[in-house]
Task: structure prediction
Amino acid sequence: MAPLPLTLACGPYDRTRALADGRVPVEGTDLRYIALDPEEIFFRMLGHGEFDVSELSLSSYLLTHLAAPASPLIAIPVFPSRSFRHSGVYVRDGSGVTGPEDLAGRTVGVAEYQLTANVWIRGILQEYHGVPARSVRYRTGGLNQPGRQEKIPLDLPPDIDIAPIAPGQTLAGLLARGEIDAIYSPRAPIAPDGARLRRLFADPRRAEQDYYRASGVFPVMHVVVLQRRLYETNRWLAVSLMKAFEKAKGLAYADLRRTAALAVTLPWVREEYEASVELLGEDYWSYGLAPNQAVLETFIRYADEQGMISRRPDPAELFAPETLHSVII
Result:
C-alpha cells in the first residue's frame, strides 16, 4: 500500500525538528512538514482547513469541539507549545499598577479574549492573586498592528465587560498613552514614542517557578489536531503521529543533555536542562492524557469560570480514543 500523503503545519521547534528533517518518519505516511508561525497556522486551519494535521490553540480547539456535535477536528494529546505566563502581563511605568492586586477594576488590553495564554493569565490571577476575571474591563484589538479580531465568535455573559478598540488603534499605543492600564499577551508590546512598558512581575521566572510549586501545572498552550474526515478513514494515523512526536521530542531532550559539544547555542544549556528536570520532572514536556489530566482540567475550569464554555468536558473527550493509553515506541 502506498504511503498516505500528509501535510503537517507546525512551528519550527526543537521538539519537532526530527519530523521536519525526516529523521523521524510518521509510520504509513509521506509527510510534508510546513513550518509556520502559530497565528498563521491557526487562521488557515480554522478558517479554511488547509492542512491534514496542525498545531492549534488549545482554547480554539476546546471552543470548536464544544460548538458542534461533530467537530471537523479531533486532537491527539501532543502539546507542541507550553509556557508559563506570568511574563505575559505588561504595564506602563508610572501607571500606579505595581502588583497584580492593582489590576482589579482596571482596563486591560487583549488581542483576543479566547487566546489560550490569556485564559491562563486570567485564571492564575484569579486563583492565586485575588483578581477575579470579571473585575477587569477587556479591550480587544491588534497588539502592535491594528485590525485584529477574535478568530472564533464568543457568546460571553453580560457581566464580562469587553469591547473592541477603535479601528487604527493598537493595544501597545493605548497602553503607552495611559488609555488602558495593562496588556495580557503572549507576545511583547512594542512601545511607541519612547514610552516605557515593562512586565508587571519584576521577576517572572521566580513567580512562575513558585506557581508551579503551588499548582503542579506547566501550562499547555497548543495541541495537535487532525481533520476528522481523514482520521475517520485512517484510524491508525492518530497513534502513528503520537509515536512520531514522542520520538522527535526524545531527540530534542538528547540534544539538551549533550556535554562533549553543545548542540544548542547557549553556554549553560545543560545546566538549565538539569534545573528544569529537578523542578518539573524527567519528562517535563510530557505528551499523553494521564500526565496532563490535571493541567487540562485546570484549563477547562478556567475557561468555564471566564464565561467561555457552557459545560466542562472530561479531558478524555477531546482526544482520539486510540491515544488515551500508553503507546510503546
